[in-house]
MnmE helical domain-containing protein (Escherichia marmotae), 36 residues
Amino acid sequence: LAEELRLAQQNLSEITGEFTSDDLLGRIFSSFCIGK
């Protein structure tokens, strides 16, 4: 799953030039409650 997300992020950044891996992970995990 992580590899697929990384590849998707690469493709998005090529198209938009606006996404970083931190942005992508932030968007994904902001909708999940992750215990610390």
